[in-house]
Amino acid sequence: MHTQNLDASTGARHxxxxxxxxxxxxxLVLLFLVSTxxxxxxxxxxxxxxxxxxxxxxxxxLLGLLSGISFALFYASFGIPIARWADRGxxxxxxxxxxxxxxxxxxxxxxxxxxxxxxxxxxxxxxGEAGALPPAHSLIADYFKPALRARxxxxxxxxxxxxxxxxxVGGTQIAASHGWxxxxxxxxxxxxxxxxxxxxxxxxxRQLPEFRPRHGTQESFLETLxxxxxxxxxxxxxxxxxxxFMIAYGAAVFFPSYLIRILKxxxxxxGSAYGAVSAVASISGYIVGGFLADRATRHNIAxxxxxxxxxxxxxxxxxxxxxxxxxxxxxxxxxxxxxxxLNAAIPGMFAALHAICGSRRRAMAVALLFFFANLLGLxxxxxxxxxxxxxxxxxxxxxGIRAALMLVLTVLLxxxxxxxxSGRHLRVNAEP
Length: 432
Hints:
The structure is a single chain. The protein has one domain: Growth Hormone, Chain: A. Helices cover about 80% and strands about 0% of the residues. The protein is built from 19 helices and no strands. Helix 4 packs antiparallel against helix 6 and helix 13 packs parallel to helix 15.
């Protein structure tokens, strides 16, 4: 959004001047709930892979396809045109419509009668969820002034952990007692009710003429792409986040399978114990990471990238060690430390993105990042991990999944390096 002159009717120089602090945080709660639904429907499949594998008798490679490419391909493909729309249209309408689509398609997953029907339904979930985060990030930038954005982003991204916990605990409990199909249905239906609340309560600053994008200021897709790729900080940040998502979404989808196969942990205990530990570690990481990012940038904006780099590098040995310990208790302890450090990186990375991209291309920048991060990270990551697991298992038996996960985790190290490089150019590349 462009900063506008003071409007006589609203007295607002910036979009965030339109609302009280209570209203702004209320809107953030709504976006938090939307994003929670997004992550519930995205992640619940990870705890359902084993019963799906048993019923349809498919390989880990196909499970990687189901949890990765089948979702990420449509998510990535729809993300950019939806972001173009979000940079000039009603973000409230986009979020509401997207929420309806992905909730309905998650419910349809529970009706699938074979593997390929389930894969097609996941295409639909991915297409719907493409309209969630870019418009939400764009709205947050309008609701909150720059000095508060990292904390607001931290709250929004904490929804990933809440969604993860709901998907893990709820999904495992329902699947264990009533089957994996009902788990999809129960997780999908609440989103339809939430869509009504979003339509009624969320506000769009662009309803006021002074905060609508001015005619003729919309960049073409190629202009936006050239402007972003010309910035070294954006390119390095993009590479770092693709590698990050290969772990956060790609490899992590097989963590429950490792616990079930190697440590022989029951499905319900995986959901409750590991899900709870992951949730606490992640939420605390988001909160601390957001606070530190806002504080550090008062001195040097480069810390928006350097703090995440530190968090990612610190998380790596903890996550590797998870797969070397013999007990579930030690696994949970290391998962808590590694998860805290890994998730503390998120607020700074997204705040860096907002600082780099400029107001005219905010949703597009988020969509471009998610295009590559989801297509390569979420999409290819599980397939690579699954294929490596199948390959190693041919010689190592069930322990092959351990070797696959430990190998894939090494991509965290170059992710930290590229974040460091992004920070070196961030001050020069930043735009209001």
